[in-house]
Amino acid sequence: MDASRRNKIYAILAGGLVLGVGAAVTLAAWNDSEFATGTFTAGSFDLQGSTDGTSGWASHDTDPGATLDFTVDADNLAPGDSVYALYSIRLVGTTDGDLTNVAPTTAGANAANLAAETHVITGTVCDATTFTAGSATLPTTITAGTDATAAPINYCLQVTAGNDLVQAAEGTVTWQWTAESQ
């Protein structure tokens, strides 16, 4: 190959190199990036109970739970007697919940002789009158709020002694509510 032809090839390659570098610089000047970031925080969720519906709110998440304050003669039952106790629950947190009212369980020597029923009532007075006026249809959702704004659900709990009540024997009834975040 002669020198003139070789010089022409070098000139063409050098020009292509200059154009390629210029194009790369031009492309780099027109590149851009965009970013977006999200921050995610879990909600809070605490099912609480109170035996008077106004104070003493706390989590009772293991059996036996809170001690209920049944009406007079709960420790001196006779067949056919019914006794009543208020229990209120609320959900403190940021996430509402699906509420399950688990059927009460009984234990002890008189377990088979104690019948438990639950009604939802308005207010915090639980007796035969408010129990009867209450609703046997129990809620399936619960709305969350702060300590000051969480709306309680008030339950009137009734226990009735059966005809075969064993004298001087004890029995216990345990109520349970569970909530699952929505």
Question: What does this protein structure show overall?
Answer:
The chain is α+β, with helices and mostly antiparallel strands and 182 residues long. It folds into 2 domains: 1-32; 45-181, Immunoglobulin-like (Sandwich). Helices cover 18% and strands 34% of the residues. Strands 1, 2, 4, 6 and 7 form a 5-stranded mixed β-sheet that branches. A 3-stranded antiparallel β-sheet has the order 5-3-8, with no helix packed on it. The longest helix has 27 residues, at 3-29. It starts with a helix and ends with a strand.
Low-confidence stretches: none
Share in helix:
10-25%
Overall 3D form: rod-shaped
| CATH class wording of the largest domain | Mainly Beta
What count of structural domains? 2
CATH architecture grouping of the largest domain: Sandwich
The pLDDT mean sits at: 86
Number of strands: 8
Find the structural class using helix and strand composition: alpha+beta
Give the CA-CA distance, first to last residue.
82 Å
Order of helices and strands: HEEEEHEEEE
- Give the assembly state of these chains: single chain
